[in-house]
Amino acid sequence: MPKLPKISDTEWEIMNILWNKAPLTAAEIIEALQAVDASWHPKTAKTLLNRLVQKKALGFKKEGRGYLYRPIAQRETCLEAESESFLERLFGGSLKPMLAHLVERKKLSAKDIADLRQILDQED
Q: Residue 60: CB partners within 8 Å, gap ≥ 6?
């Protein structure tokens, strides 16, 4: 299995757009980014698109005078790798302290607790 690319926070924004709807042109991606945050500069977005292509997270094909971009890296695979990295960096790879940390600091509803119990029961 090929090594997953390390995707930065800003690159995740582009990847999420393409995972939700692809293929898209650079102009369409920039428009979607600016719809969420008007401070996105087209040059920055194009630089990030090029980086993602170099990282082999995105592929492209020539379409007229521009390019159509599509994700190569799968969302679930990237989420799994990012989650593992997060867990390792912050909690030494141990799930229990991470869950305890989150539960202690976040108010859980009765439904949240029931959902968590259901997930944990499925693991037995």
A: 53, 67, 68, 69, 70
